[in-house]
Every structure is written in C-alpha cells, then in structure tokens.
Specification:
This protein has eleven helices and 22 strands. By secondary structure, it is α+β, with helices and mostly antiparallel strands. Among the domains are: 52 residues, Double Stranded RNA Binding Domain, CATH 3.30.160; 56 residues, Double Stranded RNA Binding Domain, CATH 3.30.160. The strands form eleven sheets. It has a two-stranded antiparallel sheet with strand order 1-2. Strands 3-4 form a two-stranded antiparallel ribbon. The chain has a two-stranded antiparallel sheet with strand order 5-6. The protein is elongated and about 115 Å long.
Length: 313
C-alpha cells in the first residue's frame, strides 16, 4: 500500500490504523503497549508522549502561557482556556444524559455523573473514606492534618474546606439558599436544613448510651449528658449557683434582676421562669397531673403531692 505521493503506509500491528510516518506509528503503538518512556525529573510521573510531559512540567514551573483576551485569566493548559471561554459565552456543551444538567468543562460533567453512578474513586489512606471528587478528598485531608487554609475576611474564622467557607459567608450576607420543601423555612447552612427536617420526620438519630434517650440534634444530646455526669458548666456570676443548661441560667438570672417576663393570660400573674408559669396554669385548667400512688389523690402542683405523702408515712 502506498499513498498518492508514493510514500508507504505503516500499519499498526495491534489494530487497523496506518501511518505514513514511523514516529507517528511509534507514538500510536504506545497506546496498546502502555509504554511511557518520557519521565518527569521532578516527580515520579511518566508519559507516553513528549508533548504530554511538556504539558505536565507546567505544574512544576507554574507557567501559564494561555491567556484569556476578555478577562486576563491565564492557564497552563490550552483545554483549560477553552473551557474557561464558555463562561464568557454562556455555552455549556457538556450535557448529562441522565438528568440533562450541562457544564462548561468535560471534567465537571465527569464529576457530576458520579452523583448518579455512586462511584467514589478517591479514597483517604488514613481513615478509608472515599469521595467522588479529588478536590473533596483534598479538603477532607485537612481534617487529619488540622490545616484550615480557607479564612473568612469578615470574622477571621477558618475552615478546612472551601465549601464550608462559602456556606459560612451566608451568615454575613444573610443569604438563606437552603429551603424546606415542607414548611418553607429557609436556612443559611445546609446542615441546619438537615437538622430542621427532623422536625417533620420525627427522626432522632443521636442516642444516649446510658439511658437510651434519643434526640434530634447532637447538641441536645450533649446537654442531656450533663444529667448523668452531674456537670453544671453554666455558673451564675452573681451567686454560687450553677446550671447544667444555659436556659436554666437565663431563667435563674431573673431572680437577681427581679424581671418576670412570663405572664398568665387569665389572671395576670407573672413569673421569672417559664416552668413556673406552666405549673401555675394548672390552677386555672383544673388539671391535676400529680397523683398519689397510695390513695389516688391528685394535685396540680408537685410540691402539694410531696406535702400530701407525709400523711401516709
């Protein structure tokens, strides 16, 4: 076989491809053999083509020869510049065949498709967790190293992942992009919405290992644990009293200030603590939830039942 110019065609021994140039044939054959004769002197990477090695070297030299004429952004790869240009044109040529979502870059589509397939090819060598994207694994590794490279310019808080910083910024901007589809409540944090959903589902995934009580939020479980440990981390600055819950301290402070913010709608009596108001209301409703186990007499106050039980002693 010869070309119209008389040059001989060189055939690939592995497939039906043919080439007029031996160097092109040799480059092609490496696809089949897996040979990678071009090695990077700065790391352990190797490549089947010299052009691929040249492109790789820019990751070490930080060279970015491909510049955007519209905004000045520069890139180490020509393909990256091509993908970037779609942001200016609004074109999203890479479309998901499953859900129809479209993307500027093919790599973004590749990452997106893993949502549907469940594939998680990037694994943490320390704890074994796996992730669908390399960038997520990189952020995860900061949890092990303690590194928090993403800082908030407003309040100084730092985060191990850029996504966490982005969500944190909603606190400052007042943006609440996470909306409950059931009641319409909106939240600045995705985790807050997830916790809120338990109000509707009744889910209580946080369980006390001592008594078996379960709670919708981990913070509530932590407060509950003070009952078992006897810990009272909220001390009063005006007296020696201390409390297991912040709310208990808040109610106690009314005893120092004289404030009685909880008023009865029926008689106008006011109380320093909400619990005392609830107990007071039993007088008006006639409900007597405290029953003597010996004689069956009922009372609207626990203290009245306690006083009554002395009769049987």
């Amino acid at each position: 076989m010869s070309t119209p110019t008389g040059r001989k065609q060189l055939s690939c021994p592995f497939c039906e491809s043919s080439f007029s140039d031996k160097s092109n044939l040799n480059r092609h054959v490496r696809i089949h053999t897996g040979e990678k004769p071009f090695s990077c002197e700065m790391c352990a990477s190797s490549f089947s083509q010299q052009s691929h090695l040249r492109r790789h070297m820019r990751t070490h030299t930080m060279e970015k020869p491909f510049s955007c004429e519209m905004c000045g952004a520069s890139f180490s790869q020509k393909a990256s510049l091509k993908g970037h240009m779609y942001k200016h044109t609004g074109k999203k040529p890479y479309c998901c065949e499953i859900c129809g979502s479209s993307f500027y870059q093919q790599s973004h589509l590749r990452d997106h498709v893993r949502i549907h397939t469940g594939e998680k090819p990037f694994s943490c060598e320390i704890c074994g967790h796996s992730f669908s994207q390399k960038s997520i694994l990189k952020g995860h590794m900061n949890l092990h190293t303690g590194d928090k490279p993403f800082s908030c310019e407003i309040c100084g808080y730092s985060f191990s992942r850029k996504l966490s910083l982005n969500q944190h910024m909603n606190i400052h901007t007042g943006n609440k992009p996470y909306t409950c589809e059931i009641c319409g409540s909106s939240f600045s944090q995705k985790g807050s919405l997830k916790g809120h959903m338990r109000v509707h589902t009744g889910e209580k995934p946080f369980c006390c290992e001592i008594c078996g009580s379960s709670f919708s939020h981990k913070s509530i479980l932590n407060i509950h644990m003070h009952i078992h440990t006897g810990e009272k981390p909220f001390p009063c600055k005006m007296c020696d009293s201390s409390f297991s819950q912040k709310q208990g301290l808040k109610g106690h402070m009314h005893s120092h200030t004289g404030e009685r913010p909880f008023s009865c709608d029926l008689c106008g009596s006011s109380f320093a603590q909400k619990g005392k108001l609830e107990r007071h209301k039993l007088i008006h409703t006639g409900i007597k939830p405290f029953t003597c186990e010996i004689c069956g007499c009922s009372f609207n106050q626990k203290s009245h039942l306690k006083r009554h039980t002395r009769i049987h002693i």
